[in-house]
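Mods, move this if it's the wrong board.
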Amino acid sequence: MTEHKVKFLPSGRIVLVEDGETVSQAARKAGVHINASCGGSGLCGKCRVLLESGTIEGGKSEKLTGQDYASGIRQACLSVIKSDLVIRIPQESVLDTGVLGTAVPVRHRAGMYVFDIGQLKKEGVFASPVDKLFLELPRPSPAYSIADAGRLIKGLADQYDEHGMVVELQVLRRLRRILREDDFRVTVTLSRPVRRHHRTRVINIQAGNWTHRNFGLAVDIGTTTVYGQLLDLNTGQVLAEAGDYNAQMSYGEDVISRIIHAERAGGLELMQSLAVSTINGIIEKLLDSCKVSRDEISSITLAGNTTMTHLFLGLEPHNIRRSPYVPVSTFFPPIRARDDLGLDLGRHAVALVFPAISSYVGGDIVAGIMGSGMYRTDAQTLFIDVGTNAEIVIGNREWLACAACSAGPAFEGGGITHGMRASAGAIEDFSINPRTFEPMNITIGNKPPGGICGSGLLIIVATLFEHGVIDPRGKFNRDLRTPRIRQGKSGYEYVLAWKDEIRGESDIVINEADIDNFIRAKAAIYAGIMTLLGNVGLEVTDLEQVILAGAFGSYIDLDCAMTVGLLPDVAPEKVKYVGNGSLMGARMSGLSNHIRKDVVDVVHRMTSFELSEVDSFKDHYVASLFLPHTDISLFPSVKKRNIP
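Not the wrong board. Structure tokens:
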């Protein structure tokens, strides 16, 4: 088979591929990211690359203009390699890791909910699931010649009242040598169970006193991004934080695309290895920043949605996308992080994985519930994490009900003509002159506009609606005297930025098709909230607090969300923001075995609703396909403003 050399710019990475492979496949092999929202099916048109030299076949679709094709632009997933190539990845396809400096990017700091370690200590529940104990054991003698393992177990019982220990084989293999390295002065690492009838395990032993060096990791395995924190298990402090894009993104930006790929031969193994490699990269960053060795990590607590958890653990996710939507498991035992999963940690490190509720309400939402403290309050609470899928939880300490609805990729920049992720150049804020209808765009990093991110899309639609530029159906007012409104390829559109002003390839616009996508997405979320409220016998007025989680939830403009009917019309003071609730919950669980026990209780008493099987969901959805809604009385604050 003929091989070709493919060089990617601006990274300079080179990879050898076989004749007939696509540019997308070559990029994956080279570790170069190209946007692939549709998983490589040729539908989204996001995988644009520039052919600088060489020969390819195909690469053209209706997503590219004749001018695009003539200038060398191709769709990577449709471009078949026939010679050595030099391919340049345009900026819009390059992931900007500069925006991943923090896992909790919150616009509304004043309403930020913080459940810190001080609360755990105050309540007396600060007790890590994996901790270290120092022992000084008696030396062997004719009068005391019991086995080394018996000596260790008796020492734990006598000095710490620890009973029923199980000493793991890897510890037994090193026990004789380690006991004698420092005259029977040793530190043992214990992994404590959640259930009472399970036994505490001795998972590591070190010569001397190492109780002051006990560290853990908390990880949020997101569909798009993965975040990690390095924890001091003795103090509860977060020592470092790092994030990266999930390497699985090259095989599709949504969970369904990745499930489909996992069903192919070797696909599940590939998805698992990509998840592990992403986490290993984050682990390396965290440890290097604090000069902590891998052998000093005792535990890693991980939370992710049900699909991400299955792919990370190497479990077949096939039936998650097929009715009746049955996952392999919703509970997971403690796992050997290195031997069973391939994480780059010491052999003793234990991986603790958050349980899920159902196929579409996963461990990330359970972690968010725990981290936010929702399950501990008397207040009637709505918890919502907005993304491609919106997960909704309603309840309090007495009861909890949940549901998930598919919102589509609009809130993450997908399905929008000039949509993009929240990276440099993305329009994140917007205002308009009410007389001239001229825009003011605020972008991430104060760069020239390159597209619209999810939070920017919300503000743009709300602002256009509030100023009468679009009507409740999302259609443009064609009577306004402004060149910004014009006929485009996808219906009428509003020009956010002229290409000459930003030195871009095309004007940045939002069109009626984009607004339709947005309205469908917001309608699904609002309908999900109202359906779940109805099924538990509550009204919007019964809600005492609303908790917003996730990246989009962290940046959401509350006034705009109510203006367009994305969220129920509630008093702003009822709203709290938790940022990355999944990571917060993973951290809390990694620091408190009591919270791990609470997790099991919460999952068992959670009632899950499948919205597609609830008749009222469709009615709520259809009624929500307007701005803000067909029934304006549901949005008194919007009605009061007399929006045109």
